[in-house]
Amino acid sequence: MTNGVAHETGETVRTIITALKSTPGTLSLVLFNIAFMAIVTYIQHTNGERWQQLLELTLKQCGARQ
């Protein structure tokens, strides 16, 4: 069953790429959007880690004073 799904997915992707070859502007916009989403996801992930460290440090310092 996995081979069938992979085969169908491959055919679908090939069909989409073939259709977008006639409109390179649309293809470039799709690729830009994918790259943009990847960058935003990475930035949000690193900001989340930094925020977690800041929160842990704040809670640690507030607990030490009491």
Detailed description of the structure:
- The chain is mainly α and 66 residues long.
- The chain has a domain at 24-66.
- The protein has two helices and no strands.
- The protein has helices at 2-21, 24-65.
- The longest helix has 42 residues, at 24-65.
- The termini are far apart.
- The model has no long low-confidence stretch (mean pLDDT 87).
Specify the structural class: mainly alpha
- Largest beta sheet, briefly? none
Order of helices and strands: HH
Instruction: Compute the CA-based radius of gyration.
Output: 22 Å
Relevant terms:
mainly alpha, single chain, 66 residues, 2 helices
What would a concise description of this structure say?
The chain has 66 residues and is an all-alpha fold.
